Amino acid sequence: MNELPRSLGGFYLANSGPVDSSAYRKLFRVYNNYRVVVGLILLATLLFQFNSGTRSFLNPLYYQILVASYLAIHVFVALLLLAGLRPRMVHVLASLLLEIGLLGGMLFFSSGVNGGVASLIVINVAAGCMLHPGRKGLLLAATGTLVVMAQEIYRFLLSESELDSVVESGVFGIAYFTAAVVIQNLSSRLISSETLAQRRAYEITELQTLNHLIIQRMLTGIIVTNRSLEVKLMNESTRAMLGIQNQRIPERLPSEIAERLLQWKHNPEVTTEPLLPSTADLGQAPLQLSFAYLAKNHNQDVLIFIEDTSKVVMKAQHLKLASLGRLTASIAHEIRNPLGAASHAAQLLSESEDLSEQDRSLNEIVLRHASRMNRVVENILQLSRSRSSNIEMIELNEWLKEFINEYKRFMAPEAVIEFEVNSGGDAERAIAGQFDSGHLHQILSNLMNNAVKFTKLHSGEGYCKVILSELQSSRQARICVEDRGPGLTPAQQQNIFEPFFTTDKNGTGLGLYLSRELCQANQAQLTFSNLPDGGARFCLTLSHPKRKVSAE
User: Fold this and answer.
1) Which of 254, 284, 349, 457 has the fewest Cβ atoms surrounding its Cβ within 10 A?
2) Is 3.30.565.10 the CATH classification of the domain at 392-541?
C-alpha cells in the first residue's frame, strides 16, 4: 500500500502551494478571526485609557498606528478568506511573522512585558506550530523571543524599564520555546494518529470494495434478510437465478424462499427440498437453499445461500450418458451386426421368384420390424454419442425464420407451417436465448415432425405452428410447437418423456426422451400441455439470457 502523506486534521503538510484542504483553511480562518477580536479588544482598551486619562505609552501615536494596522490587516485577511481565497503556506507563515512584529512594536511603545501584550505571542507561537509543524514552528518561537528580549533590552538602555523586565522577557522567551516544543509534540502525535486513521480507513474501504466484488461475482446466490423478511443485500447471481431485471433490490423475499426460511427457523436440522423450475416467483433453474444466522443471536439477520442444482443434474446427465455409451457399444456389436445380417437375408429372400404371397407378406413384416429395431439402435447410439453442449447466444427471431423455411422446403413441403412472434407489442424487438444451435435444430425437428405426423393422421393434412415469445416475469425466451392432432390422455402425459414410450406403432419412443435430455444439457425445460380446442403443445423454455450457463 502506498504511504500516505503527513497530515494534520485532514489537511496535508507537504504542499507549499495553495492549500486546498478545507480543514487547514478552517483552522487558519478561526485563528485570523481570533486576531480580529484581539485587535478590537486592543482598540477598545486604547480608547478606554485615553478617555480615562491613564496613559502608560512610550509613544502613544505609534502605538495607535500599530493597533490600527493590526486590526486593519487581519480584517482584510478575513475578507479575503470569506471571498474564497486559498492562501499558500508561505503566506500563512508571513502573516504569523508580521503579527509577531506588530505585537513586538506594541510592546516597545507601551509598557513593555508588563502590559500583557507579550502573552499574545504565546498564542501566536502555538497557532504557528499547529499550522506549520517542524522547524518553521521553532522559527516563530525564536522570532518572538528575539523581538521581546530586544525591545526590552533597548527599553532598559533607554531607562524606560527595570532589569527585572529584561529577566521577565527571557522568561517569556522560555515560555515561547516551551509552548513550541509542547505543541510540536502534540502535533506529531496527532499527525501519527491521523495518518494511522487514514491508513485504516483506506484499508477498510479497500476491504469493503473487495468483499463487494467477491459477493457480486460469486456463482452462489447470496441474500441477507432481516426478521421482517425484508431483503437487505442480494448479489448478481441471485438476480439471474430468480429472474430479477430491476436495478432495485426487492423489498421482500419471494414467497417460496420466505416459506423455506420460516421452515428452517422452526427446525434448523431439516434440509429443504430444491425449488423446482415451476415454482412461482422464481427463475428457471432448480435451486437448493441453505441458511445461516449472521450472529449468535438468532433474532438477527439471516444469510441465505442459493445453489444452482442444474449443474449437479448436468454432471449426473453426462455420467449417465457415458455409462449409456459403454452399454450401446456392446449393443452395436451384439445386436446391430446380427440384425444387419438378418435384414440383408430378408432383402435377398424378397428377390426370389419362388415366394408365395403369404411368404412374401411374412418377409415384409421381417423387413419392417428389422428396420424399426435398427432405428431404435441408431437413436440409442445417437443419444450415447451426444456431444457436450456448445452453448451460444442465439437471436431467435431470424434463426427460427431460417430454420422453418429450411424445414418446410426439405422436410415437409406439403404441410402447413405457421410462425408467430409474441414480443409484448414490440414486433421489432429481438428475442435472444442461450442454447446449442445444433441441439436446438435437433429438438425442433423432432417436435415439428411429430406435430406434422399426428395432425396428418388426425385430419389428413400436415400442420404445425411455431410460436416464439418471452416470459414477462423473467424475460426468458420460449418456443412452443402446436399441432391439431388428438392430444394426449392424462395417462399418456405421465409417461410421454419416458424412453420407449410411444403412441405410434411405427415409432421408437426415443424422440421426446432424447429431446428432453438435450434440453437438460442446455439448462432448458421442455413441457407439454393439451390445447383447449384440441391438439398438443410442446414448449421449450430457454435459460435466462444473462445467466451464466456452463457446458461440461
Assistant:
1) 457
2) yes
205 exposed, middle or buried (CB, 10 Å; 0-12, 13-18, 19+)?
exposed
Q: Do 172 and 143 meet the contact criterion of CB atoms below 8 Å apart? A: no
Return the ∠ at Cα 121 (arms to 116 and 127), rounded to 5°.
Answer: 135
Confidence class for position 55, pLDDT limits 50, 70, 90: low
How confident is the model over 422-443, as pLDDT tens digits? 876 665 678 889 898 888 998 9
Using alpha carbons only, what angle is made at residue 158 by residues 157 and 160, rounded to the nearest 5 degrees?
Answer: 110
With 0-12 / 13-18 / 19 or more C-beta atoms within 10 angstroms meaning exposed / middle / buried, residue 105 is: buried
Q: Retrieve residue 319's grid coordinates.
A: 455420467
pTM: 0.45
In the chain, where are the structural domains located? 7-207, 221-308, 313-384, 392-541
| SS3 state at 307 | strand
- Identify the pLDDT of residue 26: 82
Sign, CA dihedral 252-254-258-261, equals negative
C-alpha to C-alpha distance for 166 and 172, rounded to whole angstroms: 10
Could you identify the residue written with the cell 446427465?
Answer: 317
CATH topology of domain 313-384: Helix Hairpins (1.10.287)
Residues, the chain: 552
184-226 confidence digits (pLDDT tens): 888 778 777 878 888 888 888 888 888 777 777 777 888 888 8
Cell of 222: 447470496
∠ CA 283-295-257, rounded to 5° = 20
CATH topology of domain 221-308: Beta-Lactamase (3.30.450)
Nearest Cα to 550, choosing from 530, 527, 523? 523
Rounded alpha-carbon distances, angstroms, from residue 41 to 27, 59, 126: 21, 19, 20
Q: DSSP secondary-structure letter at 422? A: E
H or E segment at 60? helix 60-82
- Average pLDDT, rounded, for the chain: 79
